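Appendix B. One record, verbatim.
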Amino acid sequence: MEDVLERYIRYLNAERNASPHTLSNYRREITQFMEFARGRGVTAWDQVTPALLRAWLASLHAQGYVKASVARRVSELRAFYAYLKRIGQVEGNPAQAISAPKLPQRLPRPLPLEEVEALLVAPDLATPQGQRDRAMLELLYAAGLRVSELLALDINAIDLTQAQVRVMGKGAKERVALIGAPAVSALQVYLTDGRARLLEGQRPEEQESRGAEPRGGRGVGGRRNGALFLNRFGGRLSISMFTRTLKAYARAAGIQHPVTPHMLRHSFATHLLDRGADLRTVQELLGHESPSTTQIYTEVSQSHLRETVLRAHPRAGGGGKR
């Protein structure tokens, strides 16, 4: 059973461009089910039945697994069996016969515009790290990027003349993200000053493999195909480092609640819809395959509008002046 699972993991890595985190989850959690099945005498994937899967779900609930964790495992097994059926290892998909726990829908939490603006001006532009961080925050909000997409950018993905960025999204699907004048300006400052100073933190031989002048940008040190956003040693900035930095800027901006990188993506989508953008456009800009994924932002936008009306309209019962 292990060899087929490893073949599937290689497929997810090579064909689906799954992240290391996703690959780790699939391997660990499908292996967990495999061991459960073996404990009940099952030694091949085509011997698995819906009854066995239901017993497995019951054991997970008995062990105290939360609904989201159980639902993820059901989804992983469904996808795995779809793959097994496609390569001729099984005839059916027993995981389709079981129901995953119903999860409450959680609406994304966007930041109000005033909090976004306070966050964007928090970095100190007198330092190369501050110039980098201003550019990252501006780009994250201007283009609605995932933090993984932001930090995976190479310098030659930026086109300042056209005010756009080539982004490699989920499933190795490339899209073009559009950016406004503030993001362009922040990137110009970083690329002409801050990035060059951060490059000084790496060894000379490393510089040969990093950097490339973006189209429309001049005076940028380095060669070709280098990371756009660098740490103080001249290497690619990590997600964990960016997340810690963002939290510090949120505190400096006076924001009283936790702020995550994905909140800026939520804010990008919600603010566009608040100002009249159509759902299809927002879907394209976010890189969503299905409009149903983007649909949740219309609920956030409508919720925000409803709160505004209740608060401000004189006859809405929200405490406005009469």
